[in-house]
Design goal:
It comes from Reyranella aquatilis. Pfam families: CHASE2, Guanylate_cyc. Keywords: Membrane, Transmembrane, Transmembrane helix. By secondary structure, the protein is α/β, with parallel strands linked by helices. Strands 19, 20, 21, 22, 23, 24, 25, 26 and 27 form a nine-stranded mixed beta sheet that branches. Strands 1, 2, 3, 6, 7, 15 and 16 form a seven-stranded mixed beta sheet that branches. The longest helix is centred in the middle third of the chain and has 33 residues. It is about 45% helix and about 20% strand. The relative contact order is 0.08.
């Protein structure tokens, strides 16, 4: 599996896999399994549904339909042969050119009176029976006489259980080129009409269509039968032979004059009878060029028998006699329509031959499609790594479009059939597979970049950069942000107890949870400075209540540090070394700053610059001076008025000329609502009032009360001890111009 993943991630994997897809498609096209040919047939069927052959009512081909009305009038099929004989007579009298039966009269007529009287032998004397039989003409003889006066084509079928003599042939067969028998479909047995009817007919044709398919797309024009010499025609072409009074079929195959086959036996090309030449496929099959079911073709047998059809609708037409009655189950599926009467297929084939309208799949089609597939497929493979995704999609779309448009043009304008599915599907597969692998590799590289940048930037920034790489340029914007600086107190002393590897592990254990808390509250890590962290909120993406989120992060960091100290203490005791508690100072300030990419064109970082940023750093430095964990500036305090904050001083920090009110952050809004905090806040306010008014002695006395309130509120600090020392110094040396502002001596 790892080998496969390495192969997929290789730089040339898209090209290699796309080439393998092409080679596989070419191999499959050479094999041409049934699934591929069915797909091709489905496409050709779709063409005919979109643009079927136009029905021409002037074409002299009609159907005498043994429909529901005829069955209701004359009873169930098969009818007595006398009725069939009357039907033939009616059509002949009114000028029918040929009457072809899409039926097989395989047994003598059981309803014939001459046969029925023979059954009376058991009940009367034989002489009487013989006289009755001689007095009544046999029904089959009646039909044979009618056929003899007309041009009738009887039907025969193929059945592996068929026995007896083969169907009678009324034609000769000549051929040009290779012997056609080797290409024609071979049948195992036949079922034919009785001899008396065959002898009276002028032709004999197969009523079978395509026995290999549910949808009739191709109908053989010639058959051969195992064990018998000669070739047997289809009903449609035999009817037209009889109509022309032709005596011969000429079959043109590969190797004939004018046919280029390069020495290969490629099959049958065409079948000619009389003046009609019918192009076929290699197996002598005519492709059905379907119009769909047309009622105009049909004349009810009832109407013919009752003389309700004008002579002009019969005269000069070739008639196929068959049934559309559902109960007789002679229904077929065609490319355009399902459940079409089988006799209509024979009629449509005859129409095609008379109109000389044929669909053709040229013998060079397979080779042309293979070469086109190989050439364009290889071009796609070559272009895949050289073009951008957008350009490649355009090229692939063009090739796929050409693969769809050219076959449609060939069909609609020239009735030629070329595969419109296999080449475009192959091109699409090459494009999709190659593009998908390239995309996977790009995503993997992007993930690696995200992982690398995620070590330094917030996930939001990494995602934004991944979506919009144009942000990776020098420059920034002015935004209001909340900035955080943190630092470990007494880090030098702490680091002395570790070797370099131990110190690295210690810092990772400290920085990882602190970073997680900052990022989890939508903060952006600006940088790590040894044991210090710089972060900010509300950039690069807007963060609602960013000052509150920064305060929540600072409080969570202090709480998590308390847990870490417990873990480190237990580890130190287990190792027999002294535990040095780790404390951090956090400075927060809110204000406008320039945020963006700063540095050089070779290397830059996403950071923030501004006066309020510097102030945040100074506030973090004062955490050590004032002995508190978190100090926030005035602007931050204004954004979180509901949080538990105490004003601790008015100071002028290094680099500033104006004093800044600074506040200690003790807790969130819930802490601010406690009685202990409110009591502490009251004490602190009174302490600051005395301190700033110059009542240093009274302020010193107030410290004891404040310390007690701080203990009750759970505020851990050394702030009041520091202020006690400052007040002692002020009492000893009170400044003349005291304004309550302390000037910081350290950063």
């Amino acid at each position: 599996m790892s080998w496969l993943l390495r192969c997929i991630n290789a730089p040339r994997a898209p090209v290699v896999v796309a080439l393998l897809v092409l080679l596989g498609a070419l191999a499959l096209r050479i094999a041409d399994p049934s699934a591929v040919s069915r797909l091709r047939d489905f496409a050709f069927d779709s063409y005919q549904r979109i643009q079927p052959r136009l029905y021409n009512p002037e074409t002299p081909v009609r159907i005498v339909d043994i429909d529901e009305a005829a069955l209701q009038e004359y009873g169930q099929w098969p009818w007595p042969r006398t009725i069939v004989a009357r039907l033939v007579d009616k059509l002949t009298e009114k000028g029918a050119v040929v009457v072809a039966f899409d039926a097989v009269f395989a047994e003598p007529d059981r309803s014939s009176i001459s046969r029925m009287v023979r059954d009376l032998v058991a009940f009367t004397d034989p002489e009487t029976v013989q006289k009755l039989a001689a007095a009544v003409q046999d029904n089959d003889k009646v039909l044979a006489d009618a056929m003899a006066q007309s041009r009738v084509v009887t039907g025969f079928g193929f059945d592996v259980k068929g026995t007896g003599k083969p169907p009678r042939t009324f034609h000769g067969v000549a051929f040009a080129g290779d012997q056609p028998s080797q290409f024609l479909p071979q049948q195992g047995g036949t079922v034919k009409s009785i001899d008396i009817l065959e002898a009276a007919a002028k032709g004999n044709g197969s009523v079978n269509t395509d026995v290999d398919s549910i949808v009739i797309r191709r109908v053989p024009m010639m058959f051969r039968v195992v064990g018998y010499e000669g070739l047997f025609p289809a009903l449609s072409i035999e009817a037209l032979r009889v109509a022309q009074e032709a005596s011969t079929y000429l079959i043109k195959s590969s190797g004939a004059s004018g046919e280029i086959s390069f020495g290969e036996k490629t099959g049958i090309v065409a079948i000619r009878t009389g003046n009609l030449e019918v192009p076929t496929d290699a197996r002598g099959r005519l492709i059905v060029y379907d119009t769909g079911h047309k009622e105009e073709r049909f004349i009810s047998a009832r109407a013919v028998l009752k003389d309700e059809v004008p002579a002009e609708k019969i005269e000069g037409n070739v008639f196929f006699v068959g049934t559309s009655a559902i109960g007789l189950k002679d229904l077929r599926n065609t490319p355009v329509q399902d459940a079409v009467p089988g006799v209509e297929l024979h009629a449509q084939l005859a129409e095609q031959m008379l109109e000389q309208k044929f669909l053709s799949r040229p013998d060079y089609a397979d080779g042309a499609e293979f070469l086109y597939l190989a050439a364009i497929g290889l071009l796609l493979v070559v272009l895949l790594p050289r073009l951008s995704a957008g350009k490649m999609s355009v090229v692939a779309t063009v090739f796929i479009g050409v693969g769809l448009a050219v076959p449609w043009f060939a069909y609609s304008k020239h009735q030629l059939l070329f595969d419109p599915i296999y080449p475009p599907v192959t091109f699409a597969a090459i494009y999709v597979v190659g593009t998908a692998l390239a995309f996977m590799r790009t995503e993997r590289e992007r993930a690696e970049i995200r992982g690398a940048f995620g070590m330094y930037l917030s996930p939001d920034l990494v995602e934004q950069l991944a979506r919009n790489p144009s942000l990776l340029q020098l420059g920034g914007e002015l935004r209001e942000i909340t900035v955080m600086f943190t630092d470990v107190r007494g880090f030098t002393t702490i680091s002395e107890q570790f070797d370099p590897h131990g110190l690295t592990r210690f810092m990772n254990r400290f920085l990882t949870p602190m970073t997680d808390l900052i990022l989890g509250l939508k903060g952006t890590i600006d940088k790590y400075m040894g044991d210090a962290i710089m972060a900010f909120w509300n950039a690069p993406l807007p963060v609602e209540r960013h000052a509150a989120r920064a305060c929540d992060a600072a409080l969570a960091m202090q709480a998590r540090l308390a847990e870490l100290n417990q873990e480190w203490k237990a580890e130190a005791e287990a190792e027999g070394r002294k535990h040095i508690p780790v404390n951090i100072g956090v400075g927060l300030n809110t204000g406008p700053a320039s945020v963006g990419n700063f540095g050089s064109t070779q290397r830059f970082t996403y950071s923030c610059l501004g006066d309020d940023v510097n102030l945040a750093s100074r506030l973090e430095g004062q955490c050590k001076t004032y002995g508190v964990g978190i100090i926030i500036g005035r602007k931050t305090r204004e954004e979180v008025e509901d949080y538990a904050t105490l004003e601790i001083d008015l100071i002028t920090v290094k680099g500033k000329t104006e004093p800044e009110r600074v506040f200690a952050l003790l807790g969130d809004a819930a802490v601010a609502q406690t009685d202990a905090f409110r009591a502490l806040q009251g004490c602190q306010d009174e302490f600051l009032r005395l301190y700033r008014s110059g009542a240093f002695a009274e302020a010193l006395e107030m410290i004891r009360t404040c310390q007690a309130a701080a203990e009750t509120a759970g505020w851990r600090q050394t702030y009041y001890e520091m202020m006690r020392g400052r007040l002692d110094a002020l009492i000893d040396d009170s400044p003349v111009d005291w304004k309550g502002v302390y000037v910081a001596k350290d950063k």
